[in-house]
Amino acid sequence: MTSGIKPRERKSRGGPRAGATPIGLRFPADLLAVLDAYIARERPGASRPEVLRAIFREWAVSRDLIPADSSPAALELEDLNAENDG
């Protein structure tokens, strides 16, 4: 006999696990509302942490704090190795 409840599908998380340090943030309600509105409009389905990482990376690149191609996702397949895991 089944209960008719479907098992919850696992959602892929958009964040790096290896080589990343977790940080906790508390957002005031006004900033959280802006973040959620941005996600709904510009990046539907993305998680808050995923979007915050992307926004921060864009900010850092725009100020030449990191190179534009510093994201591991920007690496070519043949350039992937154990050194750039994470």
Structure characterization notes:
- There is one protein chain.
- The chain has helices at 29-42, 48-62.
- The chain is mainly α.
- The termini are far apart.
Helix-strand blueprint:
Layout: H1 29-42, H2 48-62
List the defining traits of the structure above.
2 helices; 86 residues
Helix fraction bin: 25-40%
Largest sheet: none
Mean pLDDT: 79
- Encode the helix/strand succession as letters: HH
What is the overall shape?
Answer: extended
The rounded Rg comes to 17 Å
Got a strand count?
A: 0
Tell me the fraction of residues in β-strands, as a range. Answer: under 5%
| Spatial separation of the terminal alpha carbons | 44 Å
Low-confidence stretches: none
Structural class: mainly alpha
Summarize the structure.
The chain has 86 residues and is an all-alpha fold. The chain contains two helices and no strands. The longest helix is centred in the middle third of the chain and has 15 residues.
